[in-house]
Amino acid sequence: MHVKELWGFCRRTGLKIPLFTARISAGFPSPADDFIDKALDLNEFLIEHPSATFFVRVEGTSMIDAGIHPGDVLIVDRAREPAPGSIVIAVLDGGFTVKRFQVKNGRSFLAAENADFAPIELSGDMIVEVWGVVTYVIHKA
Predict the structure, then answer these.
(1) Known catalytic residue: 99?
(2) Do 90 and 110 contact (CB within 8 A), yes or no?
(3) What is the pTM of this model?
């Protein structure tokens, strides 16, 4: 899976969307409250480090089993340190990619979330730079 488009974060508006206090049941329906608790600014909810945040649109299917589909937009935070298990945006030999960062037996890998793709072992002869950690996936329902 590769990065198709890349955007920086620029907070231009403070769009507030109603946030209801009632939780929505994914099982049996429950009675809903008829009032709004407060307004939710998606910038504040989704962006922890505005100056270190960017967005990417992805293409390809290597991360499909992680719920990342072609055309999805990822929110990426460059201020977060990648930890084993993190989904990261990396520059690998000059090209952007999105993969899961893994460490096994002292060796580091960028692993796909699709059995059709082999993990990429990060070796000394590769030029690799982790650009940030994926914090959210924006996926059209």
Answers:
(1) yes
(2) yes
(3) 0.75
